[in-house]
Specification:
The longest helix is centred in the N-terminal third of the chain and has 17 residues, at about 35-50. Helices cover about 20% and strands about 20% of the residues. With about 270 residues, the chain is of the alpha/beta class. A three-stranded mixed beta sheet has the order 2-1-14, with helices on one face. It has a three-stranded mixed beta sheet with strand order 3-4-5, with helices on both faces. The protein has a three-stranded mixed beta sheet with strand order 6-7-8, covered by helices on one side. It has helices at about 35-50, 95-105, 145-155, 195, 235-240, 255, and strands at about 10-15, 55-60, 75-80, 80-85, 115, 125-130, 135-140, 160-165, 185-190, 205-210, 220, 225-230, 245-250, 265-269. It has one domain (about 5-269): L-arginine/glycine Amidinotransferase, Chain A, CATH 3.75.10.10. The chain binds glycine (GLY). The site of glycine has 9 residues, from loops.
């Protein structure tokens, strides 16, 4: 989840992989998963990596009617104990939300929750957070009305929101970038430019990666200071190691086949 700071990442929600996962939406990184058991193994390793590095993980059962249900990041936006429940941008994914919302409302006692109405659409996967600065992707899943809803929430906290147009060859902002620490952004050449992000706060920088390592640009900063990354992205690995960061690598191949990145598979709350 990209909308909490590192020091807020103590609890994460995940959702089991359904047998119907082979029907998950897939257009960008793969042609669709074929091996549900392998995806489940990879999810178990992902959960273990979170737990081994200081995150307490809660699992929700799979929903067979929703092949993409493991990608919980899209369904709720948690910011400093408040929650926005977006209307997801793909119609097939809208009904994944109620059990996730119900769980988070119970877990976040007294949480202020807002929802979207009308034509507003947003996937949580379109948001990244760099300290107190937020970026949102205007994408095939997130529209201007959705962005207006997010802006209302962030205005409440006094946080700045910048909008980035997502190129057609990418799904979400988090499909092509992430903030492994509260000072670093990973972004791929050929997808994004420095102008997309604008001037960054002092001490922050963007690490530009070769376009062929776009999938590797999605990472998760862990509460113990390590960074979770997908196996197989040597330039990303070298850049993070050069910044003195310890890495935890997991195999994401079968989850990637459904356009799922590391952050897609959890919500920090
Ligand atoms: N397969 C993830 C998505 O398209 O939302």
């Amino acid at each position: 989840m990209a909308t909490v700071r590192l020091d807020q990442k103590r609890r994460a929600l995940v959702r089991d992989v359904p047998a119907s996962f082979t029907n998950a939406l897939a257009r960008y990184f793969g042609t669709g998963p074929t091996d549900v058991e392998l995806a489940r193994q990879q999810q178990r390793a992902y959960i273990k990596a979170l737990e081994d590095n200081g995150v307490s993980v809660h699992r929700l059962p799979a929903d067979e009617n929703h092949p993409d249900c493991m990608f919980v990041e899209d369904q709720a936006v948690v910011v400093d104990g408040h929650m926005l429940l977006p209307t997801p941008g793909h119609p097939s994914r809208v009904a994944e939300q109620p059990p996730i919302a119900e769980f988070l409302m119970a877990a976040l006692e007294g949480v202020q929750t807002c929802t979207m109405g009308g034509e507003a659409r947003m996937d949580g996967g379109d948001i990244i957070r760099l300290g107190d600065l937020f970026f949102v992707g205007r994408s095939s899943r997130t529209n201007d009305l959705g962005i207006t809803s997010l802006r209302s929430l962030l205005d409440f906290f006094g946080y700045e929101l910048r909008v980035i147009d997502i190129p057609e060859h990418a799904l979400h902002l988090t499909s092509i970038s992430s903030t492994p620490t509260d000072e670093l952004i990973l972004a791929p050449e050929g997808y994004l430019t420095p102008d997309d992000f604008g001037d960054l706060p002092e001490g922050c920088e963007i690490l530009w990666m070769p376009g062929e390592e776009v999938y590797g640009c999605n990472t998760i900063g862990l509460p113990n200071g390590k960074v979770l990354m997908a196996e197989g992205y040597p330039a990303v690995k070298a850049a993070l190691q050069a910044r003195g960061l310890d890495l935890v690598e997991v195999d994401m191949s079968e989850i990637r086949a459904a356009d799922g990145s590391l952050t897609c598979c959890s919500i920090f709350y």
